[in-house]
Amino acid sequence: MARHYLDHASTSPPRPEALAALAAWAEGPFADPGRVHQEGRTVRHAVETAREQVALLLGVRARQVVFTSGATESANAAVFGASATRPGAPILCAAVEHSAVRDASARAAPVETIPVDRLGRIDPEAVVRALDGRGGSPPALVNCQWANHEVGTVQPVGQVAEACRRAGVPLHVDAAAACGQLDLGLADLDVDLVSVSAHKLGGLPGTGALVVRRGTRIEPLLVGGLQERARRAGMENVPGIVAFGAVAAALADEGGRRLRDEEARARRRTGALVDASTGTAGVTLVGDPDPAGRLPHLVCLGVAGVEAEPVLIGLDRAGIAAHSGSACASESLEPSPVLEAMGADASHSLRLSVGWSTTDDDVEALAAALPTVVAGLRDLTT
After folding, report:
1. pLDDT tens, 261-311?
2. Adjacent-strand bridge partners of 7
3. Which CATH class is domain 16-252?
4. Which fold has domain 4-12+256-381?
């Protein structure tokens, strides 16, 4: 049976460019990029080339890019680094943030919750109100994801960033779900800290980056060495880094033409997924109904009358890989706080996401399988 992978938002298969970079790295030399001998300098050149490639994709200077083990480490480093400069000060964070951001914030400082609407979108005026009138006790940090990882809702990052600049409070943006899907243009936004991940856009797992705005001072999360300009200790993941750079270079080539082309294809395919899925009785879109207000590659559906787990199992048996926000679909024992914050039913959700390797056949397979799976499950409950 042919398999159809519609879970790119969890992790996207490595692109050919990533695998080619990995194969080239395997030819050697193998050395510590911090050494002055020829082998070390060769590896250092490869790392710095990748740094420039990632910076070009993000629209920042290479010196701002700090390589990490992934967006989870980047988010933890951002939260720790900012809160360490103002111990005891609260952190502003919405319930729709990724658990890496929410849990890191809760461990570092008291958390003040930013409200969201039923689309999962942060209210920028609520951020303004939370920042104003605090006297000499501003928050240590504000978190605002670029776009939601479960329902795709794009956040008002520009408005939040402006409010934070006026208040003199640093802003951390988790852009893991958006990087490689949208043109971020971080130079224009001028955000203090941004987290991204390689495996979400076709790089290798175990690699990411924290983008640090020029002039921003944070304490390093990992200490014990001067790697990454003393911002992140430990031997660099060279194969993951060079693969990340290769993918970033491919997406940024020709002024980002490939990125724009992939965005257009993703929007067409997720639109087809929504049209096909919502044609089934009781299946509705969760999140912003306007495609321009969502990530191009991700849609979340509510499936009335049946639990998420049997839907996922039924789709898997039909050869389709998907995901859900319910407890059954992850390591967590609790329903998705994202969907709960939106007032949606996490136990009846289905997330579908496309990527660079998705074909129209994948979309057609879901359109054919979902009505049969849902109808069969409903028959069992009647």
Report:
1. 999 999 999 999 999 999 999 999 999 999 999 999 999 999 998 988 999
2. 353
3. alpha beta
4. Aspartate Aminotransferase, domain 1 (3.90.1150)
Q: How far apart are CA 246 and CA 221, in angstroms?
A: 27
> Has 144 been annotated as catalytic?
no
Residue 20, amino acid? A
Query: How buried is 36 (Cβ within 10 angstroms: 0-12 exposed, 13-18 middle, 19+ buried)?
Result: exposed
pLDDT digits (tens, 9 = 90+) for 58-114: 999 999 999 999 999 999 999 999 999 999 999 999 999 999 999 999 999 999 999
Q: What is the DSSP string of 159-210?
A: HHHHHHHHHT--EEEE-TTTBTTB---HHHH--SEEEEESTTTTS-TT-EEE
Q: For the chain, what are the domain ranges?
A: 4-12+256-381, 16-252
Query: Would strands 320-321 and 4-5 be described as parallel, antiparallel, or unpaired?
Result: parallel
Residue linked to tokens 């209210």: 123
Q: What are phi and psi of 210, to 5 degrees?
A: -115, 120
Considering the candidates 144, 179, 300, 328, report the single residue annotated as catalytic: 328
